[in-house]
């Protein structure tokens, strides 16, 4: 530990060492950690219904339960297939980067450990697809060539931002869905394994970005804060792949149009992207063009911030909320007291709020600082940033606040 006052700001080497220790303590071998022989329940979903792209639309209501389950199966296969080639290019990017790095450093060793995790995930996803008895969804030849060329551009912080885009959205959706009782137990297990190991990858990537951000040349910063917006249309394309709808026997054009316009779907996308959006805002890597691209593909809420539209009922500027709240961290709820305030930032047009959480939270809460904070009956994604010297936790968030 450094002698720095901010005990939660270890060096890259210390941080990597911590992750290495965590990897030794808790990791999975999916070949043996999932019961591949257990029968699949014909009446259970492969994704929770609310995360299937057509859920909440009139088209969904016309489908039989059997068709709905089949669509969930095809959508999971689509996601796992995309996951496999994403992890493939991430590993390619990391391996190329390591050619230039010190082979004795903890950061290199953790990067290699992460690659090992990803190779096991690819085996796990491949086995799951096979177990479900569905053909994987393969990109076309020209698409594979483009995908394979992408990691050549993964230099410096681009690699870590790309890793976050590929990992965080799936991660936050998986967290929301892995405990759904309507889900096939095999899928629940797979998600639990993936979420556990990805949590470390996300911390490593976020730390990588944070450590570089201050010294990043302006042009690089502009480039990264602009290019990340491609993630929006890219995920919209992947998540409404015609192949899934065709396999279920739906008119794929109608199905895709319906999914892309579904307000429920938009809400799911926005909640999946919220933690990463908050991080990109926090480190100053959400440029106006990127913000527009994420917004147009419905991963960010519509342009006018909700708090501004709801100004009469929303918190007034500088209003302080001091009272009880519930905070959910690592799937556990804790009753706490919070003192929060916020303001609408005229530069990015968003409501930024922050404050302190008073109460006992798990010892290692800052290692996985994403939280859901509920106060006054409203819930918002939050981030615990540090332990205060007085025994509380600093908390921040962007968007509609959990008070007011
Ligand atoms: Fe993974
Ligand atoms: Fe990962």
From TrEMBL:
Domain DUF4873 span(s) in chain numbering: 318-403
Any Pfam family: AurF
InterPro entries with a match to the protein in the record: AurF/CmlI, DUF4873, Ferritin-like_SF, RNR-like
The name this protein goes by in its record: Diiron oxygenase
């Amino acid at each position: 530990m450094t002698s720095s006052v901010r005990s939660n700001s270890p060096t890259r080497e210390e941080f990597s060492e911590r992750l290495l220790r965590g990897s030794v303590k808790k990791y999975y071998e999916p070949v043996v950690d999932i019961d591949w022989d257990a029968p699949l329940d014909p009446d259970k979903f492969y994704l929770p219904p609310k995360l299937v792209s057509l859920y909440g639309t009139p088209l969904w209501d016309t489908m039989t339960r059997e068709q709905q389950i089949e669509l969930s199966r095809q959508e999971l296969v689509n996601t796992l297939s995309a996951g496999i080639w994403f992890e493939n290019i991430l590993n390619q990017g990391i391996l190329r980067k390591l050619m230039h790095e010190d082979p004795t450093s903890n950061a290199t060793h953790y990067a290699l450990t992460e690659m090992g995790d990803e190779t096991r995930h690819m085996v796990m996803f491949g086995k799951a697809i096979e177990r479900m008895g569905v053909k994987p969804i393969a990109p076309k030849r020209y698409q594979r060539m483009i995908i394979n060329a992408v990691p050549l551009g993964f230099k410096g912080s681009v690699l870590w931002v790309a890793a976050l885009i590929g990992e965080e959205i799936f991660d936050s959706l998986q967290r929301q869905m892995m405990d759904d009782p309507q889900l096939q137990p095999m899928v629940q297990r797979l998600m639990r394994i993936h979420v556990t190991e990805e949590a470390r990858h996300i911390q490593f990537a976020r730390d990588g970005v944070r450590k570089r951000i201050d010294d990043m040349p302006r042009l690089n910063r502009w480039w990264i804060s602009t290019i990340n917006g491609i993630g929006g249309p890219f995920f919209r394309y992947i998540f409404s792949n015609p192949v899934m709808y065709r396999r279920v026997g739906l008119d794929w054009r109608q199905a895709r149009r319906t999914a892309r316009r579904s307000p429920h779907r938009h809400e799911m996308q926005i909640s999946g992207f919220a933690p990463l959006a908050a991080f990109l805002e926090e480190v100053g890597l959400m440029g106006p063009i990127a913000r527009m691209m994420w917004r147009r593909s419905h991963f960010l809420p519509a342009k006018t911030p909700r708090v501004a539209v709801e100004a009469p009922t929303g918190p007034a500027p500088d209003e302080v909320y001091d009272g009880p709240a519930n905070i959910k961290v690592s799937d556990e709820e804790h009753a706490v007291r919070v003192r929060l305030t916020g303001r609408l930032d005229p530069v990015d047009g968003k409501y930024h709020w922050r404050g302190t959480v008073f109460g006992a939270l798990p010892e290692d809460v800052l290692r996985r600082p994403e939280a859901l904070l509920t106060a006054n009956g409203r819930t918002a994604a939050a981030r615990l940033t540090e332990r205060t010297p007085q025994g509380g936790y600093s908390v921040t968030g962007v968007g509609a606040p959990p008070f007011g």
